[in-house]
Amino acid sequence: MRTEKVYIVTTTEGCATNLMENATYRKTLELSDIQSVQTAEESNVIVINTCAYTTDQEDKSLSVIQAYQKKFPDKKVIVGGCLTKINSKKLEEVYEGDTFHPGNIDQFKKSLNIENDITIQDVESHFFDKSDFMDLTWMHRAAIAIRPLFYKVENLIGKKFQPLHNVLKTSIVNEEYYGITVSQGCAGHCTFCSIKMAKGHVKSKPIVQVMHEFQKGLDLGNDKLWLLGDDIGCYGLDFNSDFSTLLKELLNIPRHFELVINYFEPYFFLKQYDAIVPLLSDKRVLHINFPIQAGSARIVTEMGREYDPKEVLKRITELKKANPELVVKTNIIVGFPSETFAEFWQSVKSVFYFDAILALKFTARTGTRAIKMSDQISELNKKFRMAIINAAILIRHSYIAMKSFI
Predict the structure, then answer these.
(1) What is the pTM of this model?
(2) Which residues contact 310 (CB under 8 A, 6 or more apart)?
(3) Which residues in the chain come in under a pLDDT of 70?
(4) Per-domain residue ranges for the chain?
(5) What is the three-class DSSP state of 346?
(6) What pLDDT does residue 148 have?
(7) Pick the CATH number of 137-405 from 3.20.20.30, 3.80.30.20, 3.10.620.30, 1.10.3430.10
(8) Nearest-CA neighbor of 385 among 312, 330, 332, 329?
(9) Residue 277, Cα to own-chain centre: how many angstroms?
(10) Going by DSSP bridges, is the β-strand pair 356-361/285-289 parallel, antiparallel, or unpaired?
C-alpha cells in the first residue's frame, strides 16, 4: 500500500458523467494500492474534478480550488475535469499544479505518479458513488433523501404512485443503477455550449462492446441500467450507425430491466423518430432526457441547433401517449442573447410538456459564438425570467405529484 491518502471531490451540481468519472478515479486508486479517503482532513492529496458547463459552474470550480488551497496549504492539490479544457487560462490564474482532462485515466495516473498498466477498460466504473452526493445542490440532496422514504410509504400501502415514482427514481442520480457510458463528446455546433471544447467530437463505443457491458450488468444481478453520454442522440455517427440501432439490440434481450437514457439532442430524436418511438414505447424504458433548451424556433436557430421546438413538443406528446409512464425530462436556457419576452414565454409554456425540468440561466462561455452576440440580456432581466420559469416548473412538478396520488 502506498502512503498517499487521496480525497476526491467534485464541483458538479448534477452531471452524471462527472460523477461516474469520480467513481472511476477511485477504482484506479484501489487497483493502484492507494487509499481513497472520505474527508479532505484525513488526506494528503486532494483531487478536484471540476465542472464548467456554465460560467456559474466555472466560477464555483475556481472558488472551490482556491478554498482547498487556502485551507490545506500543506496538501497536494490536483485539478481535473472540464475546466482544464474549457478555460485553462482562467484556471492558471488561481492554480499552478498538475491537471488531467475529463475522463483521462493516463493523465490522472501521471498526476499521482502511478506507474502501472491499468487502462480505462480496467477501471471504468458502473455505479455512482454515494460519497459524491453531498457535493450536489440542496435540491438534489433533498430529492435523494426523500426517495427512500417515498419508497417505504409505497411499500406500506402496496402501491406505486406514478408518475412520481419514476420521476424520483430516474431524474436524480441513483446509486442503484448500473451505468454504461456509450459515448463521449458530441456532433453539434451549439453557439452556447462548451462541452465540445472539453470532450471533442462524438466517440462511440462499438455496439458489441455496449451489448457486452449491458449483458454483464444483467448477469451480475443489476436490472436497473443507465446509459450515459454527452449526447446519446449522436451515438454511432462515427461508425455509420445510430442510437435506435443500439437501443433495438438492447431491448431484444429477453430479460426484465429498467432503463434510463441520458441527454438525447432533439434534432436526432426527430431524425430517428419513426425508428425510435416504438422502442421508447417499451415499458422497460423509464426515462429519457430531451434538452429542448428553448421554446422559440428563432432562438433555437440562434443556438446553433436544427429543430423546431413545436415539432419536438408535438412528438413528445405522441410518445407520452405510447408510453404514459415514461419520464421525459428537459433542460431550458433562460436569457439567451436577443431573446424577447414573447420568445421566453414560449419556453415557459413548453415546461408543461415535460415531467422533470431544469432551467439554467444563460451565461456567456469563453470561446463560444454566443459570447460575441449582440443584444445580451441583462443579469436583472435574466433573474426576473428565472423566477417566472421556476414558478412554472414548481407548478408543473406539483401537478405531477398530485396526479400521482389521485
Answers:
(1) 0.93
(2) 297
(3) none
(4) 5-123, 137-405
(5) helix
(6) 95
(7) 3.80.30.20
(8) 332
(9) 22
(10) unpaired
